[in-house]
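Project outcomes to date are best conveyed with an example. Our students and postdoctoral researchers have been running inverse folding experiments weekly, and each run begins with a structure described purely in tokens. The record below, which covers 679 residues, was selected by the lab manager from last quarter's runs and is presented without edits.
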């Protein structure tokens, strides 16, 4: 009798657990009113908004209009890269002890050269998570009339930061992958040293990008911290161009290059004249158009230009021809002279393909992080040139910039070399905390606790931070013709209707700023039909991206084709990119070296270069034999530091690179080079 009672109690417990799970998912699950997102404590609190002027969208961030990336400007700048001092503050005492306001302590600081990340693999503080202070003093000269507005610019500080200038707090910044700005016109001292203090913090939070998805979680790449991109003060006229959006429409043998320009009239409104010139790839002037003199009525004034181009030189991977747009804004006593490069090309989806200039293109790609053993996520010209030269040698035509907006210099260099690009926000594995129970091997009892990870996807502060990162990524890079795809997430919770609802909203955020490019997100697949067939994001995406690890984390490469075919049956009209796949391979390791038993990988794998090459070959063959597959981007260009893999053959390195951390090609690089060279 007691056996029977015991069994029925266990069954009752399991049944109630399942009932709880289903009730939670379908009844109690939080339903955010996404379309009525109100300013929350995320980025849309003070100073962030998406607005319009004369139908042209723009972004207010930190209270200033967010600028387009201009490759050349006549703005005088005080370059603040170079010598700073850094100090670790594990107890986070600096703020309460008044460091940035009253007195920075004399001792405990280390001289560093900015840009800099404090926890690189080759450094002494690799595993540091927490607060690190940076400060420097600088002098600056009085700008002329052309520089009455002083804009302090940070191109990237990981992961969040607080900024003080001359003891005055300028603000807090959540998000490390896009630029941010402060108006310091009334704070700069032109007669004495200025003191700039930055508190950085590389810890993930429930609402950061990337987010923490469970208690001790780190993202799938190293959470570098520090001032890792450039810093400067720009001096600009107080009536200045901040946005220029180029759009090209191709019809037959002709094209039209439209330029929507926005001016911020920050100070007194003087009559201004705006001149826009376009130069062809051969340097010859296509045309010049002038507006004004006009006295703007509003704080933000809009100007539209359109340049018909007969026989345009289209931007293509084979011929990455660029046009130069030059903008001159003249106003009493001030002149702003800006220019940027762009391309005449169109990117769309149609008939189940990705279309470049109206023709189907197959993306022979590779995924890429910003990661270097010595420089961490800081990119410099040498690193960028080294990596892009290798990717060119791969015969690749596409780079999936994972998993966050990369530095703008890399995007421009990739553009000039003819690489197609997708750019992504760090909406990484958000809401999948319940999956962590599996990775943590915490046993079935931990599963219900992990369930609450799914709420994260709907958290308003998180979504507001995601919206800001999308907006700033697009506004910074919109004129780069190499970018053909915006990605709004990677392997997040997308199960059922609610998971899809978030992606319908994220796509609308993209479309509010850019209707000229398709949108995607990269789904993790488990090769478990229940999970794989109940994904809600793909219905809202223009291109379906799937990260598949058949043959590594689960199953075998024989599962690739059937999985892709199932996906195609569900979305017959949508092109599919196999956005991640691969296997770890320790540089030089061979099949004969036998199985290496590390965590997160079932059934034992050899971690050999041959096995990695075989897996990549199988994915390539499966993809190329299916016309609905519009591209592949194996995971990943180079081995990179990651705390997920302490017991890998190279400890703490994700070894799925087709090159080593030092960029030495593996067998898979040579194989892929041949395959991509075929067609
Ligand atoms: C995921 C994730 C990557 C990660 C990879 C891996 O697909 O998108 O960021 O590095 O898995 O486990 O190697």
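After processing, the design step wrote out the following sequence:
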């Amino acid at each position: 009798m007691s056996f029977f009672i015991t069994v029925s109690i266990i069954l009752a417990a399991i049944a109630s657990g399942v009932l709880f799970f289903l009730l939670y998912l379908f009844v109690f699950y939080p339903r955010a009113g996404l379309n009525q997102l109100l300013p929350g404590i995320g980025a849309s609190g003070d100073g962030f908004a998406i607005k319009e002027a004369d139908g042209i969208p723009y972004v207010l961030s930190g209270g200033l209009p967010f600028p387009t990336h201009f490759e050349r400007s006549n703005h005088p700048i005080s370059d603040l890269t170079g010598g700073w001092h850094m100090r670790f503050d594990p107890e986070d005492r600096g703020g309460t002890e008044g460091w940035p306001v009253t007195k920075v302590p004399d001792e405990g600081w280390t001289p560093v050269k900015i840009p800099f990340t404090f926890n690189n693999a080759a450094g002494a503080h690799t595993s540091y998570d927490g607060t690190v202070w940076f400060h420097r003093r600088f002098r600056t000269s009085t700008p002329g009339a052309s520089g009455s507005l002083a804009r302090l610019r940070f191109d990237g500080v990981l992961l969040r930061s607080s900024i003080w200038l001359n003891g005055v707090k300028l603000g807090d910044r959540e998000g490390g992958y896009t630029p941010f700005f402060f108006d310091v016109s009334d704070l700069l001292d032109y007669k004495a040293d200025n003191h700039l203090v930055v508190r950085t913090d590389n810890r993930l939070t429930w609402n950061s990008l990337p987010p923490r998805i469970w208690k001790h979680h780190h993202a799938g790449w190293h959470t570098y911290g520090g001032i890792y991109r450039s810093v400067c003060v720009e001096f600009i006229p107080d009536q200045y161009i901040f946005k220029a959006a180029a759009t090209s429409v191709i019809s037959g043998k002709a094209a039209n290059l439209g330029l929507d320009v926005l001016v911020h009239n920050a100070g007194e409104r003087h009559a201004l004249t705006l001149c826009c010139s376009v130069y062809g790839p051969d340097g010859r002037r296509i045309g010049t158009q002038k507006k004004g003199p006009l006295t703007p009525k509003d704080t933000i004034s809009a100007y539209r230009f359109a340049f018909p181009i007969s026989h345009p030189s289209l931007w293509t991977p084979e011929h990455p021809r660029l046009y130069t747009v030059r903008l001159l804004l003249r106003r009493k006593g001030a002149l702003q002279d800006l220019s940027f490069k762009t391309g005449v090309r169109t990117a769309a989806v149609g008939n189940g393909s990705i279309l470049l200039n109206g023709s189907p293109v197959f993306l022979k790609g590779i995924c890429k992080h910003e990661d270097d053993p010595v420089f961490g996520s800081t990119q410099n010209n040498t690193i960028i040139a080294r990596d892009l030269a290798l990717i060119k040698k791969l015969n690749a035509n596409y780079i999936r910039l994972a998993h966050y907006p990369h530095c703008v210099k890399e995007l421009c260099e990739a553009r000039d070399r003819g690489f197609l690009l997708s750019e992504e926000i760090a909406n990484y594995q958000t809401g999948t905390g319940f999956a962590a129970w599996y990775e943590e091997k915490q046993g079935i009892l931990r599963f219900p606790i992990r369930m609450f990870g799914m709420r994260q996807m709907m958290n308003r502060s998180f979504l507001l931070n995601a919206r800001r990162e999308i907006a700033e990524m697009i506004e910074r890079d919109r004129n780069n013709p190499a970018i053909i795809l915006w990605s709004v997430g990677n392997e997040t919770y997308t199960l059922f209707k609610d998971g899809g609802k978030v992606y319908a909203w994220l796509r609308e955020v993209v479309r509010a700023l850019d209707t000229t490019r398709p949108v995607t997100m990269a789904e993790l697949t488990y090769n478990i039909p229940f999970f794989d067939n109940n994904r809600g994001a793909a219905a809202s995406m223009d291109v379906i991206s799937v990260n598949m690890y058949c043959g590594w984390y689960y199953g075998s490469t024989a599962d690739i084709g059937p999985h892709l075919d199932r996906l195609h049956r569900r979305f017959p009209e949508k092109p599919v990119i196999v956005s991640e796949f691969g296997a770890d391979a320790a540089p030089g390791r061979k099949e004969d070296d036998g199985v290496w038993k590390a965590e997160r990988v079932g059934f034992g794998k050899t971690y050999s270069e041959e096995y990695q090459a075989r897996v990549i070959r199988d994915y390539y063959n499966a993809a190329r034999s299916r016309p609905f597959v519009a591209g592949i981007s194996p995971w990943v260009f180079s081995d990179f530091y990651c705390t997920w893999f302490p017991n890998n053959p190279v400890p703490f390195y994700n070894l799925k690179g087709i090159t080593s951390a030092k960029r030495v090609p593996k067998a898979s690089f040579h194989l892929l080079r041949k395959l991509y060279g075929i067609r």
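The pocket of alpha-D-glucopyranuronic acid is lined by residues 220, 403, 490-491, 524, 547, 580, 635, 654, 656 (CB under 6 Å). Residues 29-45 have pLDDT under 50 and may be disordered. The training component of this project remains on track.
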